[in-house]
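Lecture 7, part B: from sequences to assemblies.

Below are the input chains for today's worked example.
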Amino acid sequence: MDLVIPDKHLRKYLDTKATPAELAKYLSLCGPSIERTKKYKDGDSLYQIEITTNRTDSASIYGVAREAGAILPRFGISAKLKSLDTNKILSKYTLRKSVNYLDVVLDKKLCPRFTAVLIENVTVKESPGEIKDLLEKTNLRPINNIVDISNYIMHLIGQPVHTFDYDKIESGRMILRESKKNETVKTLDGKEFELDAGNIVIQGASGDLIDLCGIMGGENSKVDENTKNILLFVQNYNKHYIRKTSMNLGIRSEAAVLFEKGLDSENVLNGIALGIKLIEKTSNGKPRKDILDIYPNPYKGKVVKTDLITLNKIIGIEIPKQDITKYLISLGFKVIWEKDNLEVSVPSFRSEDIDIPEDIAEEVARIYGYHNLPPVLMAGDLPNKVSNADEFAFENKVKQTLKALSGIEVYNLSLTENGDIKLKNPLGADTEYLRSNLQNSLVANINYNTQEKGYIHLFEVANVYIPRKNDLPEERLVLSGIVKESTYRKDKGLVQTLLNELNIDYKEVPEDGKNFKPNQRIAIYSGKILIGEYGNLENSLFEDNNSCFYYSFEMKKLMTAKKIERKYQEINKFPPQVEDITLTVPERTYIGVIIEEIYKVSEFIKAVTLTDVYENKNTFNIKYQSGEKTLEDKEVEEIRNKVMNILSSKFGIKVG
Amino acid sequence: MKEDLINIKNQAIARISDCQSLNELEEIRIDLFGRSGIFTNASKNITKVATEDRKQYGITLNEVKTTILDLLTEKKNHINSNVRTWFDPTIPGEKQDLGHLHMVTNAINEISEVFTKIGFTRVRYPEVEYDYFAFGALNFPDNHPARDDWETFFVEAPASSQYGPMLLTPHTSSGQIREMLANKPPIRMINIAKCYRRQMDVSHYPMFHQFEGLVVDKNISITHLRGTIDYFAKNFFGENRTTRLRPYHFQFTEPSFEVDISCNVCSGKGCKLCKEGWLEIGGAGMVHPNVLKNCGVDPKKYSGFAFGWGVERVSMMKSGLSIPDIRLLYSSDLRVLKQL
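Predicted structure of the full complex, as structure tokens:
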């Protein structure tokens, strides 16, 4: 929650010689974070402050002053918090559970504290300078004294305040309740809302809704220039209801943002008191002596017990008892020591936030100053755990190899327009599912890069999501890549180079597959397990109607696939004979099968490499070698003849 | 006398022009300009020249010397380039097609390296989680806003009777629960994974990466958190960087902190990029005793700290790439990708 606090207004409640720069620096270190300090045109400093959601007690001028009063002395700067003096104001009034000017029926689950007072004969006019000054500096437009005072008090003490035109509340009757489905309310900014059930509203005597509680007042009950009598209205509401209403209707008013985080019911009276004082002063209105205060469960106090050892163990250094006492008292706590045992009484404004010894440790440590704690690396035993470092190292090796093979890594959003797992609350139809493959994303990537004219090799390593019954989905880590503007042989070589680098023992089997052109896909097996695939994708997937090469592997299977056993091989002392043979191959003959066939002919054929292809002529480089002796020309010729015979009879292949 | 000089010049020109090697050229130079070289002697003869001719002799002497020396240099360069094979080292190189790894990958590797050195083990826990692991066990109250439909993605799947609705984890902190349920202290975990939040604008993308550190052992205190964070900052960002903790609030840590690192642009003086000399890295805190209890760890015996920061954030802070829109990190535009 962000708020702006003008230095001039802060100092009305804080007596200190700290400069704005010192205030900003020290508060940020130990309390609310001052993100920036801006100079205002009159020379005032405006602090932009971030308040964490658990600290609504400091989401106001007074709240920040209270923090500063505790923090600044730690930096050797004296700072004294001034009193709001609301008790003095209230001493002239009586708090009553019922009053003659307002008849209220309420649901205490929705509204833990309800206060109101009638102020008669007000003059609606321009606000005095001091009030306008604060509003202008916090980006609010001054309207009139009555409305402005509400906003002023909210900024001053963090308690939203509302005023009704009393004469618009029929028969002085109100019912505070949960809304019903299809009820409508018109808020004072002129907008009309149709409500669901579950919002806090006030119904007037005629049945119309006159207030959307905690969010914004009703149009039909608002204060205007003709207002004579007003109802000053200060409540605390159930935060969960307010959050729901505010988010559902998209009204993020300052009041809603405060109420939804939970406020201190004790602070409500400060709101009423300041309201009475300021309205009386600026409008000549006469408040009734009876204040309506419906507060069925008043704050009874709260004690957290802890001890010195626990606190010091959490903080990591020893902080003396008297310092702990000093810090806690400066924050509004009460402290009783019994030897090293500590009882801390929590003030109402911290009751939502402070429950356990760790909370007390936080208060002590932050005022002591986190920056004063020494950085220490852990001693002690290391975890005795088998790490899955292999898995990450393998992933890394795959990525590094693909980088060397000109691959550009891409990270795509896991949310896509189709898949097997659907989101309940997607951001849009194109991100409604968790993806079940990486192919769609990579194809989309190619289609997105129409400006690139040449070669593209993109790859991604990411999870795909496979539903499982009565369980979380399987998150399957997959490697996929796509290559554009290349040749099948080069792309296939790329995949094979990767598999060789990973030392994988694999088998390639031509098998058709979805989205691949018929006869243009290879399935890759390790033993009987399918570990991946590659091939040419259908043209129709691409906007330019040009196919791309695609490969995909399941990372876990790739990692656990059978590896080629690596053994040192003695260097062969006997020189090989190497020759090129050009063969005329009939149409529709698999070259892969021919090469396999050649190897089968003799154990002395150590390598068969396709070196050139021209029309139906294929040139193979064949290496003959024996481990026992130098092969004679005659022996090589014998093998060659055998190869030719087999190729000719099996495939009808001719030499030349 | 002047004629002698002209002769010396003409002879030298003839010899230099016929010369074929550097050695021979050096001989010519010595013959002419050595201690008792032809030209050296001729220049000594200036004393013998009649006074009225002496000025002219001097001028000629200089002319001859310059001419011969120029010729010698020219010939030397010529022989040099003839002897060596001609080669132009200034011709532009042909660069190889090396691919490119994404900055998220690089950052993840660097981050894991820093933490594994001080005994952390890298893990990866589910992205699709049950509410219990993402919120419940992390001490989030039932009505906490993070559990709203507005902030967290929920999956259309039957809720688990034990663990509640299925969702996309909004933080790697769910890994704390997984880690503590599966392992006994001492624990030093670094969980790096994808996270999802229901937000999309210049500074938010619905998917991002976090790295989550968790240490649970006896006597772990705030000072250890400071030590670890400082170690990371110095090893990841540079040894002159420092960190500071500021008060913050998280449901699953108590006390909770916001961690800042000193700005490298202004060296802590305060500039446009930072807040008064400090840059925010992310949240941290001491593991809440309720979280330890929920994972079967006795908070009376053990304590711990945790931090969960954005991989993209620290990576951008380190690289100094000022990327104007976080969504660009997940662009597939090659012109962008190659820069990441």
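Note for the exam: The longest strand of chain A covers residues 456-466. Keep this in mind when comparing with the next example.
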